[in-house]
Amino acid sequence: MGEPRDLRASAVRWRGRALVVLSYELPRVQWPEVLSEAERAVADLAIAGLSNAEIARRRRVARRTVENQLARIFAKLGVRSRGELALAARKKYSRDEKVIPP
């Protein structure tokens, strides 16, 4: 997928340790209308790297609900993995605008 543009480094303290956090902007995705609003939200979080459990906590739903939504997203978009979903987001559905990952 190439190198992220606008890579930023921030110094933070966590549990008494000094850490460097790298962040970058993701392309804003215009998902096709075939995905429901909930599926679009799950897809955005999945391509940002969140696990099913993290997505479930953020959306306040069961992890199994997220798993089912991802299965429907994969089937509707013809992808088989999160990696393919991220690639499709970048190649097929990306807009020029950027968004900071959630």
Notes on the protein architecture:
With 102 residues, the protein is of the alpha+beta class. It has one domain (25-99): Arc Repressor Mutant, subunit A, CATH 1.10.10.10. 43% of the residues lie in helices and 24% in strands. The chain is built from four helices and four strands; from the N terminus they run E-E-E-H-H-H-H-E. A two-stranded antiparallel ribbon has the order 1-2. The protein has a two-stranded antiparallel sheet with strand order 3-4. A hairpin with a 2-residue loop joins strand 1 and strand 2. Helix 2 crosses helix 3. It starts with 7 loop residues before the first strand and ends with a strand.
Q: What is this structure, in a nutshell?
A:
With 102 residues, the chain is an alpha+beta fold.
Number of strands: 4
Q: Which CATH class is shown? A: Mainly Alpha
Low-confidence stretches: none
Structural class: alpha+beta
Radius of gyration equals 15 Å
How is the biggest beta sheet arranged? 2 strands, antiparallel
CATH overall fold name: Arc Repressor Mutant, subunit A
N-to-C SSE string, H for helix and E for strand: EEEHHHHE
CATH architecture: Orthogonal Bundle
Mean pLDDT rating: 84
The CATH homology group name: Winged helix-like DNA-binding domain superfamily/Winged helix DNA-binding domain
How is the topology of this model organized?
Blueprint: E1 8-14, E2 17-23, E3 26-29, H1 37-47, H2 52-59, H3 63-77, H4 82-91, E4 94-99
Antiparallel strand pairs: 1-2, 3-4
Helix pairs in contact: 1-3, 2-3
